[in-house]
Every structure is written in structure tokens, then in C-alpha cells.
Specification:
Order of helices and strands: EHEHEHEHEHEEHEEH
Oligomer: single chain
Helix content: 25-40%
Number of helices: 7
Bound molecules: 5-O-phosphono-beta-D-ribofuranosylamine
């Protein structure tokens, strides 16, 4: 499997993917921001990088066309959004239908969008977490591949909660990509996914409430 990773900033999820020993050829890391810290990390890990700067394009359609051209140069089987902070046009999403995934720092369908940790605290939820899902035109709404839950503590701040969730992001993102590379993720007509394989169920169960 060939994959490209799209980032906008720090790139810790990207790093977790690159260091996980996955059966995946990471052809390129692409950022929409030239100053994204993750670009340097990718270079240090020997992965080619590219920048498609959204500020160089007057509108979303132009930016998405430039981004698609860069992605397609690498002929990826999988496009991985790892902290990629741009809303994509419907045409772009359809172009990569069934082969583009995203990580979201909440237990979808709860808390799509931004500021998920502060919103989870404000809502008083006792469980929070993260989700890896296929990307569909509706933001943060595509078929769920894997989730991890963490407890919310009484003294949590958005920062402490974010850190607890991020540790789980770094576990489940490589896991999801591994399942995809192994051809174990079936996307069903009803908009859900099924992960096959002997250990699929056990892995799912283990992620419902990790002790952390
Ligand atoms: C992560 O929390 C991710 O879920 C969200 O943005 C953050 C990116 O962090 N979409 P990093 O760049 O992977 O370190």
C-alpha cells in the first residue's frame, strides 16, 4: 500500500504513523503550511515532503486542485489526514472516496468540528476520546473505523484532556492504517465498517476503555 499524509502543524500523529513499522510505503508528507513543524520531522525520518500553501490560492477550488495534483503525483492507495486543518471541497472528497481517512479528537458523532476538548468539558461528559474515520463530504461524519475512549477527570483542563486523548490517537491511527493495509476494513452500504480477522474483535474491545 502506498500512502500520503497531509498535515498542517505539529505532526505528532504523522510521526506515530511513520514510526509504527507499518506495511505501508509513505510516498510523501504534504503540508498546506510551509512552517509546519511536522515537515522537519518527516524529513528527519527520510520521507519526502511537499508544501501546497493555501495562501497562494485565491479560493478553495484552486487550492484543492493544486493539492490533488500533488497527491496524485504519488499515486497513493490511501490519503491520510493527520491534523490537516482545511475543509475540503466536495469534489476533492469524492475524488478520494473510500481511500481517504481522518483522525478526529472526539468520540464521533459527538463533538465534530473544533475545540473538542473544551466542548467535552463544558458538556460534562465522563468519557471522551478519538475516532479514525473515512472522509465524506460532511465534515467529521464519515464511516468510523476505530475509536478509543478515555475518562474525563474532575480536574481536567482542555490541555490535560487533550494530552490524554492524544496518547490514544497515537495508538489507534497506526492500528487503523494497519487494518486498511491488510485489507481488513470493509466499508458497508449502510455507512458502517466491519473489521475482519481473528484479532479484530479483541482489538476493538481493548480500545473501548483503555486504562489511562
Ligand atoms: C490532533 O489532535 C488531531 O486529532 C487533530 O489535530 C491534532 C493534530 O495534532 N485533528 P498533530 O499535528 O498530529 O500533532
Amino acid at each position: 500500500m502506498r500512502a500520503v499524509i497531509l498535515i498542517s502543524g505539529r505532526g505528532s500523529n504523522m510521526q506515530a504513523l511513520l514510526e509504527a513499522g507499518l506495511p505501508v510505503e509513505f510516498a510523501c508528507v504534504i503540508s498546506n503550511r510551509p512552517d509546519a513543524a511536522g515537515l522537519r520531522v518527516a524529513t528527519e525520518l527520510g520521507v519526502p515532503v511537499a508544501v501546497v500553501d493555501h495562501r497562494q490560492h485565491p479560493d478553495r477550488v484552486g487550492f484543492d486542485a493544486a493539492l490533488a495534483a500533488e497527491i496524485d503525483r504519488h499515486r497513493p492507495d490511501l490519503v491520510i489526514l493527520a491534523g490537516f486543518m482545511r475543509v475540503l471541497t466536495e469534489d476533492f472528497v469524492r475524488r478520494y472516496a473510500r481511500r481517504m481517512i481522518n483522525i478526529h479528537p472526539a468520540l464521533l458523532p459527538a463533538f465534530p468540528g473544533l475545540d473538542t476538548h473544551a466542548r467535552a468539558l463544558a458538556a460534562g461528559v465522563r468519557l471522551h476520546g478519538c475516532t479514525v474515520h473515512f472522509v465524506t463530504p460532511e465534515v467529521d461524519a464519515g464511516p468510523i473505523i476505530v475509536q478509543a475512549a478515555v475518562p474525563v477527570r474532575a480536574d481536567d483542563t482542555p490541555q490535560t484532556l487533550a494530552a490524554r486523548v492524544l496518547r490514544q490517537e497515537h495508538r489507534i491511527f497506526p492500528l487503523a492504517v494497519r487494518w486498511l493495509a491488510e485489507g481488513r476494513v470493509q466499508l458497508r452500504e449502510d455507512g458502517t465498517t466491519l473489521v475482519s480477522g481473528a484479532d479484530g474483535d479483541a482489538e476493538h474491545r481493548a480500545l473501548v476503555s483503555p486504562a489511562d
